[in-house]
Amino acid sequence: MHTCLGLWALTCGRRGRSLVVESSPVPRSRITTDPGLLRQLYVLDSLSAADIATNLGCSGATILRRLRQFGVDARPTRPVPHSWAEVGGVDWSPEIAYALGLMATDGNLARRRGQLSLVSKDLDQIETLSRRLRLNARIFRVRSLTGFLYKVQWRDRGLYDWFISVGLTPAKSRTLGPLTVPDKLYADFFRGCGDGCVLVYTDRYHATKNPSYVYERLYVSLVSASRPFLEWIRANTQRLVGVSGAVHNSAGKRQRPIWALRYAKRESLRLLGWMYYSRDVPCLSRKRLKAEKFLSPS
Question: Taking a C-beta distance cutoff of 8 angstroms, is the pair 30, 62 a contact?
C-alpha cells in the first residue's frame, strides 16, 4: 500500500520550505496518511487542504476527512475578520476569559498598537488559542535556550485595545496588576493562567528504604515576574473558591525575583474540580488528561 504523505520530501532553505513530490498516482481508496506530517503541513506550514490534495493526487475532502480523524480542526472557509471590531467588539465568554488568562501569563502585547503574540512549548495550547479567537495567522517554531517553542503572532487593534481596557499592559512582565474579570468567568480565566501549571510528579525519596514508598504528588502553581498580579489572583481565588495558596520567590538568590503562587494537594484538588467544570471547556488537553485521575466523578 502506498503511503500518501510518505512521498513528500521537505527541504528547508534560507527563504523557507520547498516541497518535492514523487509523481506516482495513488488510488484514492488506498490513500493513507502520516498524522505528524499532515499536521505539520496544514498547521505549521499553513498549506491549504486543496494545495495538499493537488500535490497528492487526491481530493480536498479526503484531506479534510483525515484532518478530522487526527483531531485537527479545519480552518474556516468563510472570510475571517481582520479585527474583532469588525464583528461588533469583544463580548465576555468562556473562550475570551481563557484567552485572557493565556495572554496574561504567556502572551505579549507589543508596544506598537495592535500587535499580539503567544509563545508556548505546547502546540496544543497555541492551536486552542487560534481556534477560540479564530486567528488567521501562521504558527511557527522558534528556538530558545531549552529547545524549540511554538509561536503565533497576529495584528488586531480591536482585540489589543480590549486587552488594554481590562488591565493587560505592553511589556507586562513586571508591570501586570489586577485585571477586570467577571466572577462567573473567573474559572475560565484562571484555567488560562494555570493550564500549563497543573503539576504531577512521582516522589521516590524514600523508595530506597521500601520500594512501596512511591507517591504521586499534585500541586497547582502559577509563575509570574509580577507579585501584585499573583497576589490579586490569590485573593480573588480565595474569595471565590476558599483556597489560600502561598506566594514565594522561586528564583532563589537571583537578582530579579520570579514569583510563584502554589497550592498544596488538598487545595489543588478543589481547584481542579472548579477549573475543569465541564469536559468541553477550552484547555490544554495534555494537562487535562494528567489531572483527570485526581478529579472526582461528577
Answer: no
Rounded CA-CA distance 54/134 in Å is: 26
Amino acid identity, position 11: T
pLDDT per residue over 70-95, tens digit each? 777 776 655 445 565 455 678 899 99
Same domain? For 139 and 31 the reply is no
CATH of residue 109's domain is 3.10.28.10
Q: Where are the alpha helices (DSSP H) in 195-245?
A: 227-241
Question: pLDDT by residue (tens digit) across 112-162?
Answer: 888 999 998 888 888 888 888 888 888 888 888 878 899 999 989 889 999
Residue span of the structural domain in which 95 resides: 84-292
- Give the alpha-carbon dihedral of 203, 194, 128, 67, to 10 degrees: 10
Q: Rounded to two decimals, what is the model's pTM?
A: 0.69
Specify whether the CB–CB gap between 78 and 266 falls below 8 A. no
What is the number of residues in the chain?
Answer: 298
- DSSP letters for 175-206: T-------GGGHHHHHHHHHGGGEEEEEE-TT
